[in-house]
Design goal:
Elements lengths: L3 H25 L6 H11 L7 H10 L16 H9 L5 H5 L41 H9 L1 H35 L5 H5 L2 E2 L12 E3 L4 E7 L4 E9 L6 H9 L6 E8 L8 E6 H10 L1 H6 L1 E3 L12 E5 L2 H7 L2 H8 L1 H7 L3 E7 L10 E7 L10 H16 L4 H47 L2 H19 L10
Helix pairs in contact: 13-14
Length: about 475
């Protein structure tokens, strides 16, 4: 019995270990699957190293966990390779395109590669494709057309400018020639009143009548008449040859074709006369701005009991006597009357007679200024042009009364004294200006001198002042 008890205990312990060993194994490896199941999962997810070693290499580099090595004793099912080959992901084509064959030796050469993508002219890219052409084939043509826009605009402007230049030049020449043909040819007003017309010597018919000083400036000269030295007519036309001026004049029409006449009277053929007729607005400006009109004249009010100029005109004169003598009945009937001025005085601007003209060469002058009509309407200014020879004769034989002469002489002597004072004041101002400049130069020179030079100069000046202050002594010899 003593030996049977230990044997029974040993058998009991053996059976208890056998019964509890699966429970202990499950408790020790709780949460882990069977090794066979893990191997099957790994074999189904990873490609076979024997068929595609490159895929194993890429997968190993992409994952951080080490690849488990399968147990060669475990049986591999027959369907495993087929499923692995079909379900395994294909390698990215972009990865193989940048591989260097010399660097990766031992890789299979029968790896299928995608053909390179090419963009043809007729091919249309699919909406899913990310490849877009970098440049538009039509872009250079559009850029080249845009680059010529400025050149085309400049070329067009130059062509229009050249056409306008020659067209405007021809129009101004035609206008000047139309005036000359109407008033400066044979049996016209100037031909009947002057013996020499034009700038030539008058020996033949080939001498030119007009002198062209610019594309819009023409001059006409006439001489050989009593009471005057000559006549100079200056036509200042619109700048039709200038495209910019033409466009500006269309927008703001401030300029027009004008002609001015200067008659240089003889010294003994004109008395003390300062007289002007102009439109009211222009007359006020002339009376304030023109020197001789400002000094000697006033605006004359219309007299009572006689005909006078049109309401649009104003008379500026040194005295009422002069104004009444120069505004004659013939002039009122022809031009300056109310009805005559509305019909024939459209181009009249002003006329100005003065024996105190501020010009440098001629003091006694008659000035007329008119607006030129069109080339086909030159006859409209016939009566205005006829005023020139009329007033040359009228002023040439006109004499003031003794009372009016005394007043005009007193006025001129006073004006001469004022002019002399102004000249003296101008001379004094010029001398003072020169002295101030000389003193400034001396001060600048003294500032540049050294201290020793200044001391010597002061000592010399002091000695000169002391010598001047000493009493003068006269030495005589004893006899």
């Amino acid at each position: 019995m003593g030996l049977a008890v230990p044997h029974l205990l040993t058998l009991f312990l053996f059976f208890s270990l056998i019964c509890f060993s699966p429970i202990l194994a499950d408790s020790d490896f709780e949460g882990f699957e069977d090794a066979d199941d893990i191997d099957e999962d790994l074999d189904s997810s990873l490609p076979l190293t024997t068929t595609r070693p490159s895929q194993t290499l890429l997968t190993a580099t992409a994952t951080s966990q080490p690849e488990p090595v399968p147990d060669p004793s475990d049986p591999v099912p027959d369907s495993e390779p087929a499923s692995s080959t079909t379900d395994s992901p294909k390698p990215s084509s972009t990865s193989f395109e940048y591989w260097d064959e010399d660097e990766f030796e031992g890789l299979p050469q029968d790896q299928p590669q995608q053909p390179p993508l090419t963009v043809t002219e007729n091919a249309t890219p699919s909406p899913d494709s990310d490849l877009k052409p970098s440049t538009d084939p039509k872009q250079p043509a559009e850029g080249s057309s845009r680059s010529y826009t400025v050149e085309i605009a400049c070329g067009g402007f130059l062509i229009v400018f050249i056409i306008n230049y020659f067209t405007g030049k021809r129009m101004n020449e035609n206008l000047a020639l139309a005036w000359a043909a109407k008033f400066a040819t044979k049996d016209t007003i100037f031909d009947k009143n002057f013996s020499l017309l034009g700038v030539g010597e008058g020996e033949g018919d080939d001498s030119p009548l007009l002198l062209k000083e610019g594309q819009n400036v023409f001059k006409f000269y006439a001489s050989g008449r009593r009471c005057c030295q000559g006549l100079l007519a200056t036509m200042e036309l619109k700048s039709r040859h200038d495209l910019i001026s033409s466009i500006f004049n269309l927008v703001v029409p401030i300029s027009r074709d004008e002609i001015s006449f200067e008659v240089y009277m003889n010294d003994d053929a004109m008395d003390h006369v300062v007289f002007a007729v102009a439109k009211k607005k222009a007359a006020k400006a002339m009376q304030k701005e023109v020197p001789d009109l400002q000094k000697f004249t006033t605006i004359v009010s219309p007299p009572t009991g006689r005909k006078w100029v049109a309401d649009d005109l104003a008379v500026i004169s040194e005295s009422k006597e002069v104004a009444g003598d120069l505004i004659t009945e013939a002039v009122l009937d022809q031009v300056f009357g109310e009805k005559a001025f509305q019909k024939f005085g459209k181009g009249f601007m002003y006329m100005h007679f003065s024996d105190q003209h501020p010009g440098p060469t001629h003091k006694k002058m008659l000035l007329f200024k008119y607006a030129l009509p069109d080339a086909n309407s030159m006859a409209d200014m016939t009566r205005l042009v006829a005023l020139i020879p009329y007033y040359i004769d009228l002023i040439g034989r006109y004499k003031l009364s003794s009372q009016a002469r005394s007043k005009t002489e007193a006025t001129r002597s006073k004006a001469a004294q004022e002019a002399y004072k102004e000249l003296q004041n101008a001379r004094q101002e010029a001398l003072q200006r020169k002295k101030a400049e000389r003193k400034k130069l001396m001060e600048e020179a003294e500032a540049k001198l050294s201290a020793e030079s200044i001391r010597k100069k002061e000592a010399k000046e002091r000695a000169r002042q002391m010598k001047k202050a000493m009493p003068k002594m006269k030495m005589t010899r004893a006899s």
